[in-house]
Design a protein that fits this description.
- It comes from Aliidiomarina haloalkalitolerans.
- The protein has helices at about 5-10, 15-30, 45-60, 70-85, 100-110, 125-135, 155-160, 185-195, 220-225, 255-265, 275-285, 290-310, 330-335, 340-355, 375-395, and strands at about 35, 95, 115-120, 140-145, 165-170, 200-205, 230-235, 250, 325, 355, 360, 370.
- With about 400 residues, the chain is of the alpha/beta class.
- It has a 7-stranded mixed β-sheet, sandwiched between helices. A 3-stranded antiparallel β-sheet has the order 9-12-11. It has a two-stranded parallel sheet with strand order 1-10.
- The structure holds pyridoxal-5'-phosphate.
- The site of pyridoxal-5'-phosphate has 13 residues, from helix 5.
């Protein structure tokens, strides 16, 4: 009776949002569930940002804005790229959208045709393959396991590129693995990309600031300036400023491409919420010390969590470089429990240990689960205790 489009039938709802919802439902029903499925900081948006939003309302900034964002915010984004990344962009090379997800969607809609191939390194952020399918293009997944720190090599990239390849996704530091590419690793990828001028690079820098490596953050255009005119940088304020609900993301890249993405946005959502734009402006131009405090807390939690998980038989875990996720390999535990899939293991953990996690297969990496450490230290300690108790039962 309702023959839906082939494109929508090809995709599934976001699995991370589904886990959070299930955990919330169980909690509401009275279960003592610890939900570590969420992908958002547990911090409150800093006060000066909230104040800026209130002021924006009172000043009457409650109408349509320019489709691509208010000029002040676009200028602030250009200043951010100059300050943090030594990358020079004009406001006409920047588009503000309703969250990082929206920026990515605009890019895929503007750049891809039916049958075009998109290279997606796995473990990947859940939405890349489905968004690719939704615009009729083909995800080509490169697998990178724990032994290569979940990062693809230049040789793997070279092998995956075909005459149909039109886009490569890079996400560093990575959701779900927490791993970041070093400058040398990116330079090696750049060498390959130089040989394939048709391939555009989408670097998703959403977690840029949530990083604790000795080497400062780098992305592809920073180490390979000659590829800047083939790269779109995708970012936003959601994670760095604990602003997931405000829905402000942005893209920077070559002017013709940004103009095309703006055209897509003009015929779909128009401008992102005016009030959120003023809040994002305050975030990018105000006191940045909040980020350091939040990252320091995430790092402490990371260290405790990795130490705790390392002691659990059947788990293999590598310390991450950043983000607020841990991504242990759980094949040993799956074997001990006698289940074939990570989905089953996560179901068992939820029903027997009251811990909600996202199975690695959602990220194209079966045999793992993702724990978000956007939760208090006590909660994390308790989650580790429960997982350890669960594992001990089957040891
Ligand atoms: N990119 C990555 C890697 C993410 O993890 C997320 C959010 O989970 C996004 C983009 C999208 O962020 P936003 O909430 O701004 O749409």
């Amino acid at each position: 009776k309702y023959p839906l489009s082939q494109r929508v039938n090809a995709i599934k709802p976001s699995p991370t949002l589904a886990v959070s919802q299930k955990a919330a439902e169980l909690k509401a029903a009275g279960a003592d569930v610890i939900g570590l499925g969420v992908g958002e900081p547990d911090f409150t948006t800093p006060e000066f940002i909230r104040e800026a939003a209130k002021q924006a309302i009172d000043a009457g900034h409650t109408r349509y804005t320019a489709v691509d964002g208010i000029p002040e915010l676009k200028k602030a984004i250009c200043a951010k790229f100059a300050r943090d990344n030594q990358l020079s962009y004009e406001p006409s090379e920047v588009l503000v959208s309703a969250g990082g997800k929206h920026s990515i969607f605009n890019l895929l809609t503007a750049w891809l045709d039916e049958g075009d191939e998109v290279i997606i390194p796995a473990p990947y952020w859940v939405s890349y393959p489905d968004m690719t399918l939704l615009v009729g293009a083909i995800p080509v997944v490169i697998e990178a396991g724990i032994d290569q720190a979940y990062k693809i090599t230049a040789a793997q990239l070279e092998q995956a590129i075909t005459p149909k390849t039109k886009l490569l996704f890079l996400n560093s530091p990575s959701n779900p693995t927490g791993m970041a590419y070093s400058a040398d690793e990116l330079k090696a990828l750049a060498e390959v990309l130089r040989k394939h001028p048709r391939v555009l690079i989408a670097t998703d820098d959403m977690y840029e600031h949530i990083l604790w490596t000795e080497e400062p953050f780098v992305n592809l255009p920073m180490v390979a300036p000659d590829l800047k005119d083939r790269t779109v940088v995708l970012s936003g304020v959601s994670k760095a400023y604990a602003m997931t609900g405000w829905r402000i993301g942005y893209a920077a890249g070559p002017k013709p491409l940004i103009a095309a993405m703006k055209k897509v946005q003009s015929q779909s959502t128009s401008n992102p919420a005016s009030i959120s734009q003023y809040a994002a402006l305050a975030a990018l131009t105000g006191d940045q010390s909040f980020i350091g405090e939040m990252v320091s807390e995430f790092r402490t939690r990371h260290d405790r969590l990795i130490a705790g998980l390392s002691n659990i038989p059947g788990l293999k875990v590598r310390p991450g470089d950043g983000t607020f996720y841990a991504f242990p390999n759980i094949e040993g535990l799956m074997q001990a429990v006698g289940v074939d899939t990570d989905v089953e293991l996560c179901e068992r953990l939820l029903s027997e240990a009251n811990v909600a996690l996202v199975p690695g297969s959602a990220f194209g990496a079966p045999g793992h689960f993702r724990l978000s450490f956007a939760a208090s230290r006590d909660t994390l300690d308790e989650a580790v205790r429960r997982i350890a108790e669960f594992a001990a039962k089957y040891a």
